[in-house]
Design a protein that fits this description.
heterodimer, A: alpha+beta, five-stranded antiparallel sheet, B: alpha+beta, 5 helices, 12 strands, disordered N terminus, threonine protease (chain B), Proteasome_suB-type (chain B), protease (chain B), nucleus (chain B), hydrolase (chain B)
């Protein structure tokens, strides 16, 4: 499915004859090279799950985080070039902080997604800079507006979702997410399903070891975005591993 | 404070009486209607000190009228832009925060204090005080201006939380009438604005219809 731009892809300020900006599309390919991140919105909150590939046994556990806190009530899970993602998380933090300083209350998630999307879009207009090579999922929970989930991609577009996935296994993850009835689930139920999906889409052959990063924000955390507590995370991973074994067993029976 | 500074500050007193009070389902914001220059000249008998900064948010102003008008004009613009970006009516807290930022960041040049009151979908009726230097405080009722010093006892004794609309109107009218009766730089008519989810109602009580107290 790779199409070569040949001449029209040298800078973001050039359209191709068929109306595409290749640099932005190449940036999206950079996201597809990274490991998977998913975010799902349920009845009373949002849960993020990231498949963090461990490239070296020497890595400290819990380092190289892919989930960031943007404000007390907003979390961001990223996929793509991590350096770009970290820089965007700082930009988002500044936006949220300035909003609070000017208007005295928490930034609504749609507004934050629009503002950061505008920033990302600005880098797709000029030849002097390259587009950001990362997509990210923003999630928040508010007593009045409920849970919200938005995804921003390298073109600067942002959409609201009930569930979305970014990274190399996003198609497989989307299929799994579509099977869920997330509108009726609570965060505690959803945490286990998110862990299960990450375990399902992880490719044991190509990528060996991985660490699961789980975070949530919702009624269960009183509106604060935090990493899922260790005991709940262990329970979720246990559920995920057991579900995988069950499926393997059932496959064998069918044969 | 040296002698000259104290004298300058003395000339620019908060010359008015303003108040705001929360009742069951809404908020009333009120003021007198006198503008004065110096201690003895009344430059206007019918000025409106209640400025609408958005559909359900009003400010009443005290201090230098010029500074207050400049700040509210700027706040009105910023608030309308903010509300269009948010695609929803602004929170009262957002309006008060905008005024606070303007007052605090320009505290050297400005001499104006505000009471911001209104209704929003999230927290219902609210009242915020933005003082001279840029302090922001939320209160169930508040009074301000030079005339307010004469009615602290009255409002402290008579305020009840969750009053009905009629009780709240009576409370505000009485308070303003008492202040206007004793403060030489407050007077004229009583302007009240009643803000609820459904509507904004402007009530004017002319001088001869004001409640009378035993000294008159």
């Amino acid at each position: 499915m790779s199409s070569i731009g040949t001449g029209y892809d040298l800078s973001a300020s050039t359209f191709s004859p068929d109306g595409r900006v290749f640099q932005v599309e190449y940036a999206m390919k950079a996201v597809e090279n990274s490991s998977t991140a998913i975010g799902i919105r349920c009845k009373d909150g949002v849960v993020f799950g990231v498949e963090k590939l461990i490239l070296s046994k020497l890595y400290e556990q819990g380092s190289n985080k892919r989930i960031f806190n943007i404000d007390r009530h907003v979390g961001m899970a990223v996929a793509g070039l991590l350096a770009d993602a970290r820089s965007l998380s700082e930009v988002s933090r500044e936006e949220a902080s300035n909003f609070r300083s000017n208007y005295g209350h928490d930034i609504p998630l749609k507004h934050l997604a629009d503002r950061v999307g505008m920033y990302v879009h600005a880098y797709t207009l000029y030849s002097a800079v390259r587009p950001f090579g990362c997509s990210f999922i923003l999630g928040s929970y508010d007593e009045d507006d409920g849970p919200q989930l938005y995804m921003v991609d390298p073109s600067g577009i942002s959409y609201g979702y009930w569930g979305c996935a970014i990274g190399k296994a996003k198609q497989a993850a989307k299929t799994e997410i579509e099977k869920l009835q997330m509108k009726e689930m609570t965060c505690r139920e959803l945490v286990k399903e998110v862990a299960k999906i990450i375990y399902i889409v992880h490719d044991e052959v190509k990528d060996k070891a991985f660490e699961l990063e789980l975070s949530w924000v919702g009624e269960v955390t009183k509106g604060r975005h935090e990493l899922v507590p260790k005991d709940i995370k262990e329970e979720a991973e246990k559920y995920a591993k057991e579900s995988l074994e069950e499926e393997d067993d059932s496959d064998e029976d069918n044969m | 404070m040296d002698g000259i500074t104290y004298q300058c500050l003395g000339l620019l007193q908060l010359k008015t009486t303003i108040l705001a009070v929360k009742f069951n389902g809404g908020v009333i914001i009120g003021s007198d209607s006198r503008a004065s220059m110096g201690e003895s000249y009344v430059s206007s008998k019918t000025i409106n000190k209640l400025i609408q900064v958005h559909d359900r948010i009003f400010c009443c102003i005290a201090g230098s009228l010029a500074d207050a008008q400049a700040v509210t004009k700027m706040a009105k613009f910023q608030l309308s832009f903010h509300s269009i970006q948010m695609e929803s009516p602004p929170l009262v807290k957002a309006a008060a925060s905008i005024m606070r930022e303007l007052c605090y960041n320009n505290k050297e040049e400005l001499q104006a204090g505000f009471i911001t009151a209104g209704w929003d979908r999230k927290k219902g009726p609210q009242i915020y005080v933005v003082s001279l230097g840029g302090m922001l405080l939320s209160q169930p009722f508040t009074i301000g201006g030079s005339g307010s010093t004469y009615i602290y006892g009255y409002v402290d004794a008579k305020f009840k939380p969750d009053m009905s609309l009629e009780e709240a109107i009576q409370f505000s009218t009485n308070a303003l009438a008492l202040a206007m009766g004793r403060d030489n730089v407050s007077g004229g008519v009583v302007h009240l604005v009643v803000i609820t989810e459904a509507e904004v109602k402007h009530v004017v009580v002319p001088g001869n219809k004001l409640p009378k107290f035993h000294d008159e």
